[in-house]
Amino acid sequence: MSTDPTVEKTHAPHPDQSDATSPAPDGPVVGYVLKMYPRFSETFIVSEILAREAAGERIVIFSLRPSTDARFHPELARVKAPVIQVPRSSTSSKLWTQLVLAAECPALASGLQRSLPELLAAGHDDAQQAVGLAYAAQQAGVTHLHAHFASIATTVARLAGLISGLPYSFTAHAKDIFHQDVDERELEAKLAEAHHAITISGYNLDDLRARFPAATQRLHLVRNGLELSRFPFTPNLGARPAADPAAGGGVEITPRPARLLGIGRLVEKKGFHLLIEAVARLRAEGLDVEADIAGDGPLTAQLQEQIDDAGLRSAVRLLGPCTQQEVSELLGSHDVFVAPFVIGADGNADGLPTVLLEAMARGIRCVAAEVTAVGEVIRNGETGWLVPTGDVEALTAAVAEAITADPRHLPMLEAARTLIEQRFDSAAQARRLHGLVRDPGAPAAQSRLAAVEESV
Fold first, then answer.
1. Which residues contact 347 (CB under 8 A, 6 or more apart)?
2. Of 100, 235, 363, 386, which alpha carbon lies 20 to 30 A from 22's?
3. Is 70 contained in some domain?
4. How confident is the model at residue 94 (pLDDT cuts 50, 70, 90)?
5. Same domain for 338 and 434?
6. Does residue 195 fall inside a structural domain?
7. Is 1 within a domain?
8. Do residues 275 and 179 share a domain?
């Protein structure tokens, strides 16, 4: 792959290019089906692919949409997998043309006939891309399709599997299973028909099993992984020192302010409006606190207006999007990472954001609000501060405690790092994913605590 971080893209061959077939290589070749690749906010997918490639697996990436991001992470340059852009047309007439041409391909003809009712029931966009994906996967020697998110990518992967006869699997995350627009019947069908399905947290596993008991026999827990060597443990216990009983309980304030950090897309579920409110409250109490918020999104203007109205322009900064290297530097230079998650009005909630795991790995004190699976990693008083979602008073109090430079915080940071090493090592993640492609009935990864049980 080119060292250009924007990644080389090759277009999927048209179904009439039947002379372009290539022999199927020995061993499995996993085709990653992604709505968009590369994508600035989905670093966990890149880490997963890198770990699988490092373990010797062959990967081909299929992107259903061209990337619209203006910046890319340098880690993309390390991905060896070819990237194939699956063609997409805005007109339904192109679907019929593609169906006719694909029917002339011997490897797809019977599959097309068998899956025609499903294709006709799908939207022309998904159906057309499914035909293109089936053909491109066959040309690339793919033996297994794997999609991330149980929405568009899995819809197309499932249809392409019907056409090509290839097994498919998918990873379910958060919005794709919790949002109010999720089609329950469609999600159940995807779970039931998949070679296997994966979800990233015990919370998700329990939720999906409760909702779809008959369709989750091959649903497994495989947590998102981190390339731990990229996140050195460098605990920072600076900022406001604790009261010294020997000195009469007085508190000496350091010359520099306590530095808070929030990272994520500027969308409702991240709850950054609560971080801004917490900074205002802490400063009103006489505490010298500042905050940096890295990321971009539709609420940028609204959050900046909140900052300005609160007179916090010099204390709270919106940094815009940051690369993984820049995120690592921010985690190493701030005192407390704050993740004030909320559940959106549309039911959207974070699953287990990678950046929270990265913060715990780096050794920064973490304050997080409890939504979905966050309580699986932030254990109040053990690995960080866990507060009720939407409770700005509890958030403010937790941050006030966290910015205190107390040596008793060090065991908490060490416990957080140990938890990440045990549950979120990308090398272990790659082994589980590879094993599931070979044996979807393997019981090891089906346990809610499997990631811990296999590591200790």
1. 178, 179, 180
2. 100
3. yes
4. low
5. no
6. yes
7. no
8. no
Output 222 or 121, whichever has higher pLDDT: 222
Quote the longest CA-to-CA distance of the chain: 87
Count up the domains in the chain and report the number.
2
Q: Show Cβ contacts of residue 79 under 8 Å, excluding neighbours closer than 6 positions.
A: 1, 7, 46, 49, 50, 53, 61
Q: Are residues 143 and 271 in the same domain?
A: no
Query: Could you tell me if residue 395 is inside a domain?
Result: yes
pTM for the full model?
Answer: 0.84
Query: What's the pLDDT score for residue 105?
Result: 73
148 and 249 belong to one structural domain: no
172: containing domain: 10-225+426-453
Average pLDDT in the 279-308 region?
97
Whether 415 and 432 map to the same domain: the answer is no
Confidence of residue 433 (pLDDT cuts 50, 70, 90): very high
Instruction: Tell me: do 262 and 346 sit in the same domain.
Output: yes
Residues 219 and 188 in one domain: yes
In this structure, what CATH number is given to the domain that contains residue 242? 3.40.50.2000
Q: Which residues contact 333 (CB under 8 A, 6 or more apart)?
A: 259
